[in-house]
Design goal:
With 254 residues, this protein is an alpha+beta fold. It has 7 helices and 14 strands. The longest helix is centred in the middle third of the chain and has 24 residues, at 116-139.
Amino acid sequence: MKIISYNVNGIRAAIKKGFIEWLQQTDPDVICLQEIKATKEQLDLEVFAKAGYSYNYWYSAQKKGYSGVAVLSKTEPNHIEYGTGVEYMDFEGRNLRVDFDGVSVMSLYLPSGTNVDRVAHKLKYMDDFQSYINELKSTHPNLVVCGDYNICHEAIDIHDPVRNKNVSGFLPVEREWIGNFIDSGFIDSFRYFNSEPHNYSWWSYRANARANNKGWRLDYGMVSKPLEDKLKRAVILSEAKHSDHCPILVELDL
């Protein structure tokens, strides 16, 4: 099973930049999207069906043109779960899970901490999300939680760890949380296979950051421990350029 996660920074904008053609060439079984910034009604769903993804599920934010997640699948899931059931979390359309035989895949878009209020919101969200996942694992132990976590875990995951140490996305409290999330029973699939520096999944649009590879690794394929022996590979697909993020890929041998 080939799973891709991609913060598209607006699905309609990404489509104009060749996203559908790229999707057909890359050919994942499941693709999790974040920051779709659109409602289902604003999209021509036929383009996804023609690309091989008749099963597509959209969970938009209440606020127009903001946030939102989606999952596109080649095969029909057994169950689709929209949100977490916690109202303030679900208001911004940040969690969507699809269950298949043997594995459940979630598209996650954690909040970013753009100001003091949003940092507080992000920290509360992270804590409540951890509690939600702890409970979920008791009924769905084979979990792949992929998406934009808006956190760099280690110094190796960010181009300038010293100057960014007080910036949201690399705050000690955020780094500690993602470390604890992994310790609660997950594998950072990319780091499972690759310990090299200078591997990022997001670059600012400013100062030619992407060309100079001054990036952050914010996107993760977190795979629950029971699936460890199924892990086949995990890579960052940095050649895809439909967004300020690039996609990540996790492959499981199911």
